[in-house]
Every structure is written in structure tokens, then in C-alpha cells.
Amino acid sequence: MNDLAPLLTPEGRALLDEVRDTAPADELTVATRLRREHPVELVSAALGQARLRQRAAAKFGPQDAGRMFFTPNGVEQSTRASVATYRAERLKALGVTSVADLCCGIGGDAIALARVGIRVLAVDRDPLTAAAARANADALGIADLVEVREADVTEVDTAAYDAVFVDPARRGGRGRIFDPEAYSPPLSWAVEAALKAPHAALKIAPGIPHEAIPADAEAEWISDGGDVKEAVLWFGTEPGAVRATLLPGPRTLLGRGLPDPEVRSVGRYLYEPDGAAIRAHLVAEVAEQLDGGLIDPTIAYVTADELRATPYATAYEITDQLPFNLKKLKALLRERGVGILTVKKRGSAVEPEELRKKVKPQGPNSATVFLTRVAGAPTMLIGAPA
């Protein structure tokens, strides 16, 4: 069903409540029963929406997701609520009171902005997506702060707004789009739109090449719970600044242009920097906090002799360093009764599942093995969280 309207009727809403907790294995039975009393298309739409809401709970929380309306692309591409809230609070701290949210999708960012008291114009050219954004603003009680407009964002006048937020589509028919100029709309257009406003934030893929970042933008990489979620280009803040922000928190590491850390031998501890710090090229800043060095000039693992607490890296105590050799690894794990094996890799072509199948860990103990390079040589480091 390409129209949300039937789901917004009393019959549709009642049906959504009825199928809310339907498990995938029970859908056929439930659908067969409900089709005796409701139109076939409406039952299918309600069950489809229930599935989307269940998937969206990870991003929006079960309470909000259970009231919202989604499209398949909307669930995949919408901003996680924690990230959207962080960004909205940062815009509010800049004194922003109104935002033109271009390419708003199903309204995830518009919701966060409205909830901190910012007035929002939410624009999307897809009719179903715009309808979902409108329904979500209404369902969450923020319709008085969110105006949803179905339009081409390139034709929208944003002059009346304090800030512009652009979230270009980064997926096409063949999957993810890595070229910023292949975004829809292109990054160059989004930058041009940003420069017309006192403040702006452009959501981009975390893997964007640093050379593609405009000189007058601040670049921020954001992770949530250790997973890198997105990068943002900020305008009207600190041109040229680079930062990594970790949620929950927030905790922010600001780049200082440090040179690459020195390469040194593996010490007692190995630190795995947060993905946001790695993407932001701030491993040197992390290494400085730890008084550490790199195990290899091309590998983002930091090693040190002392254990130091930092939110920007996870520490492991290393017990063994071996040249890459599966037979030796298997023997060592068997000797120590390791059955719970965590495999991490950086700079190795071996896949963790492939290794796990070959060494066949057995026993009550646990260990972590790092497949990596040390001074250019394929190496296995064995240890445990510190």
C-alpha cells in the first residue's frame, strides 16, 4: 500500500493496535483471521507497518516507534534518535530557533529538533515519505512546531530560517553511494545551501574522504555505543575543526593537528580507538592521552605499557604475541581451555568466522585474538579486556 491514509483512519489505527506484537511466524495466521473482517490491503498494510515499527524500535525506542509510521527506506536511512537529539541540542546551544530540514525522510531529525523547542520546516519530495513525516509529527504531539512540505528541496527558499539541515540520500538502486557528488542532492549543492544560512549541518557518510571536506566546514564523526553512525559537516561554527563525538555522553575529542604517533614494540596493553576517532583521523590525539605508540604505521591500534582510562579507546591486556600461524594459535587456545573466542582484525585478510571454524575453540575460558600487523609482519596478539 503506497498510501498511509487508510492506516490513519479509526479502523486502521485499531488494526495497528491489534497487530502490534505479532511475531513473524504468526503473521499468516493473524492475516487469515483479520481478512474475514477487514479489507485485504488494509490488513497487509497494518502487518507491514507493525514489522517496520518493530525494526525501528532499535533507533527510536519502543515507545516512540510503536506510535510512528515508517517506510522501509525510512527505517534504514533515518537518524538514530540519540544522534538526532545530540545534534538538535547542539543547534539549540548555537541559538538556533528555526531549521529548514531538507530531505527530512520520515521525520527523525525534525522530531528531535521540535522536542528541544526548534521550529522546523521538513521537506521531502516523496509523497509517501512526506506523509509519514506529517503523521509522525501528529502522533508524537509536535505538529505545532513541524510544517511538512512535499517539494523538491532545491526549489525551497530557506531564507527565513536560522539554520539548514540537509540529509542527502546516500543509497541508490545498487546500494550505498560513496561519491559525495552522487548523493541526492549532491554534496556541492548541499554546501551551497548551507552557506546561505547563519548555521548549517550536513549529514554525510562516515567514510567521506577528508579531502572532500570544504575548508570552511567543521567535520564531526559521531559514534553511539561504540558504533560509528555518521559524519556531519557544520557551518557557522569552527571552520577547519575536526572532532570525534561519542554517545552516550556526549564526549568530544577535538583534533589538534598532531603528527602521527611513533611506531613502537607491543607493550602490555593494546588500545582499540573508537571508530569515530579513527574516522576523524584523531588516533594521534588518543595515543597522546595514553602515552602510547602504534604497533604499525598503517594500523590504528595503540600500544602502551600502562593502563590508562579513556572513553576514546578500549583497553586489552596482551599475554601473547605470535607470528600468524593457525596451528600455533589452535594449540595455545586448547592448552588454555579457551572456548569463548573474540576475534578482531585490522590489516588482515583472514575473516573472524573463518578463523573460528579452523581453530575450533573449546573450553570454559575466554580470550581475544587480534589478527593484525606489527611492524609490517602478520601477527596474532592474544589477550583479554583490561
Keywords:
single chain; 386 residues; alpha/beta; nine-stranded mixed beta sheet; seven-stranded mixed beta sheet; 18 strands; 33% helix
List the quaternary state of the chains.
Answer: single chain
**What ranges have pLDDT less than 50 throughout 5 or more consecutive residues?**
none
Strand order of the largest sheet: 3-2-1-4-7-9-8-10-11
Main β-sheet: number of strands, strand sense, barrel status? 9 strands, mixed
Whole-number radius of gyration? Answer: 24 Å
Distance between the termini: 52 Å
| Helical stretch tally | 14
- Determine the structural class based on helices, strands and strand pairing: alpha/beta
| Helical proportion, percent range | 25-40%
Proportion in β-strands: 25-35%
Number of strands: 18
Mean pLDDT across all residues, rounded?
94
- CA-based shape: globular
How would you describe this protein?
Helix content is 33%, strand content 27%. With 386 residues, it is α/β, with parallel strands linked by helices. Strands 3-2-1-4-7-9-8-10-11 form a nine-stranded mixed beta sheet, sandwiched between helices. Strands 13-14-12-15-18-17-16 form a seven-stranded mixed beta sheet. A hairpin with a 2-residue loop joins strand 17 and strand 18 (377-385). The longest helix is centred in the N-terminal third of the chain and has 21 residues, at 40-60. The mean pLDDT is 94.
